[in-house]
Design goal:
The chain is of the alpha/beta class. Helix content is 28%, strand content 16%. It contains 17 helices and 20 strands. It has helices spanning 31-36, 38-44, 79-91, 110-115, 177-193, 226-229, 235-245, 263-270, 303-316, 334-337, 345-357, 387-398, 403-413, 416-419, 450-454, 460-473, 475-479; strands spanning 12-15, 48-51, 55-56, 68-72, 95-100, 129-130, 151-154, 159-162, 197-200, 253-257, 279-281, 323-324, 362-366, 481-485, 492-498, 502-509, 515-518, 527-531, 543-546, 551-557. It has an 8-stranded parallel sheet, covered by helices on one side. It binds 1-O-alpha-D-glucopyranosyl-D-fructose and calcium ion. Residues 22-24, 26, 28, 30 line the site of calcium ion.
């Protein structure tokens, strides 16, 4: 695998810093807490850490509102702590990528503080300002993710500014070359410190249609801005410029968050010849259980849809590269969403890990996924802290939905499901802090926690450890061509990965019952590498009786 780029052979672990480990008794996770847990991450075997934003921020959207790109927020520590983390991680051959949030800043950022003062200062064109319509209303009908209108009026300028997220998150004006220069400069600052790349927040939204037309009336208000701002006219130009100005000088990885981007558009972003990004977080599999309020619904995904989405992305990104994920800080826990959190929690956690980790691309593990965590049963809707969840609760109440229904969909979909403190052990607050945690700990911590799993050779943790180590050992997991089989099966997802010399056969059941399963004749013969039920070395025949949520990985050397 000598010539393969390092990020193609890597497994990334996502850390939500405020919820990972508190080291100084203030109830908030911090950089020293991450340093303390490096041996845990090393044991798991991950190669890269992605840290959610740790820059100075008023935390309106948990750090996605950056007040100063050159400072670490005090709650997490100091720049010295960050350098220490970087060095100690590098010593263990673990790389670190940061979150780059440059579609918008915080309204507390000095650029915005200056920009809003007048129409003719150094920073006046750093943001997107427009005059009101003659009747004083906003320039167009765009909504924002966390409020209704995406425009906020500022009396000093007599103008509105655009914010696709909260009003405290004004959008930067990427048309302004000075803004782009500022961004490239801050990127270089972190790369020069030794950072190994970036996860790039809502990166496909940078370029807006410059005539700012109204969105069609029938689009849902909170995302109708996609119409005028996703994959916009100068998007690729901006990213190519960024690659030229920044990435060309460093050996780094880039992954762009790309909501509302289809696989054909993804080819353009990730084709190495075009020189833009290494990979994207696509959202198609996150949309399979949307309902009338979008994400906040109790619809259950269908296996056929999931298979179609993965197969499409696996097949489309031939020159480009996939990122593989079940969840992150914006999504609920995969065991609840795609598995079975009641009867088959650990089995389905392992099955989901198998399905994802044997695909082609770079797998991402969101903290706690390696323990098989599930969604969080809060007692009250007032326990939710997240700005998006609060907004949705309000909206559903206005629409007359019952409290029981609202509770149900928040349980199923709130971003807070991912954001509760990490359960390290079964002591108070799961060993996350000995102070009052910034957010309630999931009541599950007494049954699901790291210490317990580290003492149990059959735990989800050790299963993930094996999945990660397989990727390091078998080239076919990195480069093999993907093909799915038995594609009409409503309970079982099977696929192969094949290169010149090797073949992997992966079989994953999504059924709560035993399943009689016929393996295509030509795939028989491989040897079992890993399963969540049986022991290794078994040979693959043409008929299997699969246990509930069983996962199987068979390996075969091909003879020519
Ligand atoms: O998320 C962008 C994004 O697409 C979200 O609107 C997503 O649809 C939503 O969270 C799903 O529930 C990124 C960050 O990951 C998120 O945490 C931030 O709130 C957002 O950008 C603004 O920076
Ligand atoms: Ca702390």
């Amino acid at each position: 695998m000598a010539n393969t780029q390092w990020w193609k052979k890597s497994v990334v672990y996502q850390i939500y810093p405020q919820s990972f480990q508190d080291s100084n008794h203030d109830g908030i996770g911090d950089l020293q807490g991450i340093i303390k847990k490096l041996p845990y991450l090393e044991k798991l075997g991950v190669n890269v850490l992605w840290l959610n934003p740790i820059y100075k921020s008023p935390q309106v959207d948990n750090g996605y509102d950056i007040a100063d790109y050159y400072q670490i927020d005090k709650r997490y520590g100091t720049i010295a702590d960050f350098k220490e983390l970087l060095q100690k991680a590098h010593n263990k051959n673990i790389r670190i990528i940061m979150d780059l949030v440059v579609n918008h800043t915080s309204d507390q950022n000095i650029w915005f503080q200056e920009s809003k003062k007048s129409r003719d200062n150094k920073y006046s064109d750093y943001y997107i300002w427009h005059d009101p319509k003659p009747d004083g209303t906003p320039p167009n009908n765009w909504g924002s993710t966390f409020t209704d209108s995406a425009w906020e009026f500022v009396p000093e300028r007599g103008q509105y500014y655009l914010h696709l997220f909260a009003k405290e998150q004004p959008d930067l004006n990427w048309e302004n070359p000075k803004v782009r220069k500022e961004v490239y400069q801050l990127m270089r600052y972190w790369l020069d410190l030794g950072v190994d790349g970036f996860r790039m927040d809502v990166i496909t939204l940078l370029s807006k249609l410059q005539d700012f037309p109204d969105a069609p009336k029938d689009l849902p208000i909170h995302k109708n801005y996609y119409f005028g701002s996703s994959n916009g006219p100068r998007e690729h130009e901006f990213l190519q410029e960024m690659a030229h100005e920044v990435f060309d000088d460093y050996d780094v990885m880039t992954v762009g968050e790309a909501a509302n981007t289809n696989s054909d558009q993804a080819i353009l972003y990730t084709d190495p010849k075009r020189h833009e990004l290494n990979m994207l977080f696509q959202f198609d599999h996150m949309h399979l259980d949307y309902g009338k309020y979008g994400k906040f619904s109790d619809v259950r995904f269908k296996l056929s849809d999931l298979r179609n989405v993965f197969t499409e992305w696996q097949n489309k990104l031939v020159n480009g590269w996939n990122s593989l994920y079940w969840s992150n800080h914006d999504q609920p826990r995969p065991t609840t969403r795609f598995g079975n959190e009641q009867q088959y929690l650990t089995q389905s956690a392992k099955m989901l890990g198998t399905l994802l980790h044997m695909m082609k691309g770079t797998p991402y593990i969101f903290q706690g996924e390696e323990l098989g965590m599930r969604n969080v049963k809060f007692n009250s809707l007032s326990d939710y802290q997240d700005i998006e969840t609060k907004q949705v609760i309000q909206e559903m109440r206005k629409a007359g939905e019952s409290e029981a229904y609202i509770k149900k969909v928040c349980y199923l979909k709130s971003r807070d499901n991912a954001r509760t403190p990490f359960p390290w052990n079964d002591s108070k607050n799961g060993g996350f802090t000995d102070a009052q945690p910034w957010m309630k700990v999931s009541p599950d911590y007494s049954i699901i926690n790291a210490q317990k799993e580290l003492n149990d050779p059959n735990s989800v943790f050790y299963y993930y450890q094996k999945l990660i180590s397989l990727r390091k050992k078998y080239q076919v997991i990195v480069d093999g061509k993907y093909q799915n089989f038995n594609s009409n099966d409503s309970a079982v997802y099977g696929y192969t990965r094949t290169n010149e010399n090797e073949r992997l056969v992966v079989i994953c059941s999504f059924s709560t019952n035993k399943v009689n399963y016929t393996v295509p004749y030509e795939l028989a013969g491989g040897q079992l590498l890993l399963s969540n039920y049986r022991s290794a070395h078994e040979k693959l025949g043409t008929h299997l009786i699969l246990e509930p949520y069983e996962a199987l990985i068979y390996y075969q050397k091909l003879t020519h």
